[in-house]
Amino acid sequence: MKTSVLHKANTRGHANHGWLNAYHSFSFASWYNPERVQFGMLRVLNDDTIAAGMGFGTHPHDNMEIITIPLEGDLAHKDSMGNASTIKTGDVQVMSAGTGIQHSEFNPNHDQHTKLFQIWLFPKYRNVTPRYQQITLDVTKQKNDFAQILSPNADDEGVWIYQDAWFYLSDFDAGFSKKLSLKKEGNGFYIMNIEGKIEVNGEQLEKRDALGVWDTKEIEIKANTNAKFLVMEIPMEQ
């Protein structure tokens, strides 16, 4: 019985709008793949490069948990709740869209592109009051460890969302390996390899490859080269 799915980097949807070069792990905008609509409650994982001085104009969201992780450069954010801030590499931002929110996102730099992951999860609760949170991560915790950056708990490490999900960022040295156990029974793992080469339960992942795993209580990740990656523990059902 199948308990994993491999998403190679070159199988993602791709749209290059000039100002935006986007790769979609799951069906998004004009790219639709009936086999790539979601992984459990994970609906969107976009790998975006935004040109200098460009960005997304004001647009609405509702009933979605939206997480932004800058990989290079900065992102200027404004929203209908009155938040105006710049997210930098090493930060993580979350919006619980709830009953509805409007926001814009721009690359404020005129000489550097911005690279980021934008991730959408279906919420555990619908029509909540919209909220915004942004923190700066201690990247030293990512070295040869699973540094928690997101959870369902407001008093836990990282940002929090309205979903039983946990995210970790890691920076492993070549040859290092470590196991990670599920926080909640019935959840699955979705691992996005940011750079380098890793092995997850024996499956080889290169840059921007991803692996979804379910019906397991733990995973083991080994770095075959120096590697950075994102691990998401995701509810498989609501």
Automatic annotation (TrEMBL):
Cofactor note: Binds 1 Fe cation per subunit.
InterPro entries membership: Pirin, Pirin_N_dom, Quercetinase_C, RmlC-like_jellyroll, RmlC_Cupin_sf
Gene3D superfamilies, A to Z: Jelly Rolls (2.60.120.10)
Family indicated by similarity: Belongs to the pirin family.
Boundaries of every Quercetin 2,3-dioxygenase C-terminal cupin domain copy: 149-234
Organism: Flavobacterium aciduliphilum
A GO term for molecular function: metal ion binding
Binding site for Fe cation: 59, 61, 103, 105
Keywords: Iron, Metal-binding
Domain Pirin N-terminal: 11-121
Name of the protein in its database record: Pirin N-terminal domain-containing protein
Cofactors named for this entry: Fe cation
